[in-house]
Write a structure and sequence with these properties.
Blueprint (H helix, E strand, L loop, with lengths): L2 H18 L6 H8 L3 H13 L3 E4 L5 E4 L8 H8 L17 H27 L3 H8 L8
Antiparallel strand pairs: 1-2
Helix pairs in contact: 1-2, 1-3, 1-4, 2-3
Length: 145
């Protein structure tokens, strides 16, 4: 699953949890609501739980629940919870017919460029809260009652 797909699916799941708060939701009910494979969704929810964004509630009426307010969850936090690498990743290849020196110059150029773009992306993602996404898509958050 690509990073953008994982982020989108995680945000959709979190929005559903905000909408249905304080009732825990099973991964099956979340997956049916947002149209994502339940097994893949469980992996994402597990990562979000490890990072204190959601909580896993045990029992017959258990499931997942938001652990903090949508106002305090931002996209950067979600992204860092589900990804183990930066949005822009350069796979350094030392072949392709170029000399090692030329290849290194290209690699250095793109590593610098990607580092700058990564910083810009992270700054923008920190300004976007889950609550602002809920407002943009017109979902009422029961968390804020």
């Amino acid at each position: 699953m690509s990073a953008s797909t994982k982020l989108s699916n995680s945000v959709k799941a979190l929005c559903f949890l905000a909408e249905t708060f304080p009732e825990p939701q099973s991964s099956v009910s979340i997956s049916e609501k947002i149209g994502v494979n339940a097994s893949k969704l469980r992996k994402l929810l597990s990562l979000l739980a490890k990072n204190d964004i959601v909580e896993s509630v045990k029992g017959t009426n258990g499931g997942f629940i938001l652990k903090k307010s949508p106002k305090k969850i931002h996209l950067q936090e979600i992204y860092c919870s589900i990804e183990d690498r930066k949005a822009f990743h350069l796979h350094v290849n030392k072949e392709n017919g170029h000399s090692v020196d030329t290849t290194q110059k290209f690699n250095d150029y793109f590593l610098g460029l990607f580092a700058d773009v990564q910083v810009d992306i992270e700054k923008k993602m920190m300004k976007i809260s889950l609550n602002s996404i809920l407002e943009q898509v017109g979902i009422f958050s029961a968390y804020n009652k």
